[in-house]
TrEMBL record, chain A:
Domain PB1: start-end pairs: 96-183
Region (Disordered): 1-75
Cellular localisation: Nucleus
Protein name according to UniProt: Auxin-responsive protein
Pfam families with a match to the protein in the record: AUX_IAA
Organism: Hevea brasiliensis
Domain of life: Eukaryota
Keywords associated with the record: Auxin signaling pathway, Nucleus, Repressor, Transcription, Transcription regulation
Repressor among keywords: yes
TrEMBL record, chain B:
UniProtKB keywords: Auxin signaling pathway
InterPro entries given in the database record: COI1_F-box, F-box-like_dom_sf, F-box_dom, Leu-rich_rpt, Leu-rich_rpt_Cys-con_subtyp, LRR_dom_sf, Transp_inhibit
The protein's name: F-box domain-containing protein
Methyltransferase as UniProt keyword: no
Organism listed in the record: Hevea brasiliensis (Para rubber tree)
Record has Glycosyltransferase as a keyword: no
Domain F-box residues, every copy: 8-49
CDD domains per UniProt: F-box_AtTIR1-like
Length: 193, 584
């Protein structure tokens, strides 16, 4: 191949076989603009949360500097990432246990550390404070009476259970997330299901 | 010359060819003349297909009718980092089905990054009467049911290696499917299995296989079971321990220590999840004969690591977490003069601040002390051009150099300059460099260095680097031996790709994701290059629903004799001669 290809600011490769567009025309390739119609960013991998902070480089179309948790970066295999975490057996020895809490009608979720509480009364009180509502009286037969809310949790099998039915330790080891149900769905759970 | 070829009987030529093992040499032999082509193809026993879509099974079987060993690779390397969406491809079943008919005497199957199903494993188990070796590296799609079929039916199995594969719904009972009469096992690697295996079945299997050399256990094997297993297999050469943690008790300690001392042939150790440091001295007696140590799952801090590596004077390969720190790497440099390969993995890859004192200095120390070092994978958070230049000068025999500075686009932390000169020194001094991974702040200049100097480079990985198409052009134009190029998040577009289209046929594959290659350019390439598959991978929907100038999400280009494949999922489109018509 010719050694005389010169380039200073730009590739000067008009002699090469392939280019877009008809011969004799120069095509200015503006790529980012025409993708504006599309809802997604043209370069979705970059996970830019900060509203378009530009990269240091001057080149157009350079993605903004990515923050942590860019897909596939740093380049570590998933089995390696997984094994850096504690195995399930020692979850009991871990000092924190954060679970997500959602409430029907609330705009966003919260997170609480279950290890902070000694038992159900403390946990329920904390939930009442966090979401500004009241939970009724718990009874084994009828669930939570006296309020339109029922605290529920998703267990390891993916089932939604009423909070309070099982011993506290068992609840701690099987609770994956909490949901405060409201209205008729909640009442359904309380009635001898 | 021709007369000589005719005068040698076929059997003699075949015998001569049987000493030639490398594919490159065998391919050369088969090009000498037609009769050599014929003789060679009938006696080729091993085939390697680096991209399962480059050729189809019937082509392979037609040319090589008497194969005993097959090695296949499927997904592109970046699939390891979740950049290839699930369902992209890499299904091995069609190959196995074809080979079940054509190669009844097949003995070995090695697969990497392929989708293997239980159905596939069952077919293997019943089709090949003399089946001996199954290696599934980074594969997925199968469960322990498939393994049970292999165990039950492959009476002459020597090697079962599941390295880093994802196995569904693991249950431990598949091991019991090896019949009591089965004693031929030489190598077993189940380190990737998530759940327990049946311990007594494992112990019984180990005990009745006198040729067992390699045993890699999974995390679920507790420390107190290890001693029993070791005592049943004192001839082991390679051991992967399970969880290396238990309450510190003198009786348990002496049991383990005794078991290790009984293994006089041990050369390689791995595993060691959740290490309790108090149990480490149990392996001190065998350290001096270790050549390979993989502690990349072991949460051992640097003082204990220093004590350990200082006793491993024969060490040739070390994989370790960055807990080793600069101080541990200095010890490595001082004591392990035979070291050839070092891999340092990050213990907290997503932490914004460093959690350990591991810097560029650690790698510099090793390059100074270990003159045989030729293969490096190093994760760190800071680097300088000076350090890279020093490393390059110390290790002119480097063949694989992969540096990952965790934060993208990090400059030299002292001069704040790009790391172009540092990597430039690497490619300039290390003339045998075959594999290179770049990171840090890099301009087009680093690619100019690479194109100019890296003449033996076969694989290059690039991320968050470069300024313009000039960078890509330097590499495609200059790297004569380039086979695999993988790029993500770089401002490379159409120009360099189109200008170097012919180069792509000399390579195995090119991956580009989150770059600026337009759909129009992909179509053009597809039209002009019939022997390439141009795969556009885009989860936003059909590329023709967007303007032609819009960049594609991901692009995978590979040479092939098999034409476009037929097993593509909905988010993959192949650009071929008709694509311009179909998409307009």
């Amino acid at each position: 191949m010719e050694g005389v290809v010169t380039y200073e600011n730009d590739l000067n490769l008009k002699a090469t076989e392939l280019r877009l567009g008809l011969p004799g025309t120069e095509r200015n390739q503006e790529q980012a603009v025409s993708c504006a119609r599309n809802n997604k960013r043209p370069l979705p991998e970059t996970g830019d949360q900060n509203g378009g902070a530009k990269a240091k480089s001057d080149a157009p179309n350079t993605p903004p500097a990515p923050k942590a948790h860019t897909v596939g970066w740093p380049p570590i295999r998933s089995y390696r990432k997984n094994s850096l975490q504690q195995p399930k057996q020692t979850a009991a020895e871990s000092s924190v246990m954060y679970v997500k809490v959602s409430m029907d009608g609330a705009p966003y979720l919260r997170k609480i550390d279950l290890k902070v509480y000694q038992g159900y009364p403390e946990l329920l009180k904390a939930l009442e404070n966090m979401f500004k509502f009241t939970i009724g009286e718990y009874s084994e037969r009828e669930g939570y009476k006296g309020s339109e809310y029922a605290p529920t949790y998703e267990d390891k099998d993916g089932d939604w259970m009423l909070v309070g039915d099982v011993p506290w330790e068992m609840f701690m080891s099987s609770c994956k997330r909490l949901r405060i149900m409201k209205g008729s769905e909640a009442r359904g759970l309380g009635c001898g299901v | 010359m021709l007369r000589m070829a005719r005068s040698l009987p076929e059997e003699v030529l075949e015998h001569v060819f049987s000493f030639i093992h490398s594919d490159k040499d065998r391919n050369a032999i088969s090009m000498v003349c037609k009769s050599w082509y014929e003789i060679e193809r009938w006696c080729r026993r091993r085939i390697f297909v680096g991209n399962c879509y480059a050729v189809n099974p019937s082509m392979v079987i037609r040319r090589f009718p008497e194969v005993r060993s097959v090695e296949l690779k499927g997904k592109p390397h970046f699939a390891d980092f979740n950049l290839v969406p699930d369902g992209w491809g890499g299904y091995v079943y069609p190959w196995i089905a074809a080979m079940a008919n054509a190669y009844p005497w097949l003995e070995e199957i090695s697969l990497k990054r392929m989708v293997v199903t239980d159905e596939t494993l069952e077919l293997i188990a019943k089709s090949f009467k003399n089946f001996k070796v199954l290696v599934l590296s980074s594969c997925e799609g199968f469960s322990t049911d498939g393994l049970a079929a292999i165990a039950a039916n492959c009476r002459n199995l020597r090697q079962l290696d599941l390295r880093e594969s994802e196995v569904d719904d693991p249950s431990g009972h598949w091991l019991s499917h090896f019949p009591d009469s089965f004693t031929s096992l030489v190598s077993l690697n189940i380190s990737c299995l998530g759940s327990e295996v049946n311990f007594s079945a494992l112990e019984h299997l180990v005990g009745r296989c006198p040729n067992l050399r390699t045993l890699r256990l999974n995390r679920a094997v507790p420390l107190d079971r290890l001693a029993n297993i070791l005592r049943r297999a004192p001839q082991l050469v390679e051991l992967g321990a399970g969880t290396y943690s238990a309450e510190l008790r003198p009786d348990v300690f002496s049991s383990i220590a005794g078991a290790f001392s009984g293994c006089k042939e041990l050369k390689s150790l791995s595993g060691f999840w959740d290490v309790v440091p108090g149990y480490l001295p149990a392996i001190y007696p065998i350290c001096s004969s270790l050549t390979s140590l993989n502690l990349s799952y072991a949460t051992i801090q640097s003082p204990d690591l220093v004590k350990l590596v200082s006793q491993c004077q024969s060490l040739q390969r070390l994989w370790v977490l960055d807990y080793i720190e600069d101080i541990g790497l200095e010890a490595l440099a001082a004591f392990c003069k035979d070291l050839q390969e070092l891999r340092v993995f990050p213990s907290e890859p997503f932490a914004l601040e460093p959690n350990v004192s591991l810097t560029e200095q650690g790698l510099v120390s090793v390059s100074e002390g270990c003159l045989k070092l030729h293969s490096v994978l190093y994760f760190c958070r800071q680097m300088t051009n000076d350090a890279l230049v020093t490393i390059a000068r110390n290790c002119p025999k480097m063949t694989r150099f992969r540096l990952c500075i965790i934060e993208p686009r990090t400059p030299d932390y002292i001069t704040l300059q790009p790391l172009d000169d540092g990597f430039g020194a690497i490619v300039e001094h290390c003339k045998d460099l075959r594999r290179l991974s770049l990171s840090g702040l890099l301009t087009d200049r680093v690619f100019e260095y690479i194109g100019t100097h890296a003449k033996k480079l076969e694989m290059l990985s690039v991320a968050f680097a470069g300024d313009s198409d000039l960078g890509l052009h330097h590499v495609l134009y200059g790297c004569e031996n380039l086979r695999k190029l993988e790029i993500r998040d770089c401002p490379f577009g159409d120009k360099a790709l189109l200008a170097n289209a012919a180069k792509l046929e000399t390579m195995r594959s090119l991956w580009m994701s989150s770059c600026s290659v337009s759909f129009g350019a992909c179509k053009l390439l597809g039209q002009k290059m019939p022997r390439l598959n141009i795969e556009v991978i885009d989860e936003r929907g059909p590329p023709d629903s967007r303007p032609e100038s819009c960049p594609v999400e991901k692009l995978y280009i590979y040479r092939t004799l098999a034409g476009p494949r037929f097993d593509m999922p909905g988010f993959v489109w192949t650009m071929d001669e008709d694509s311009a018509l179909r998409f307009s």
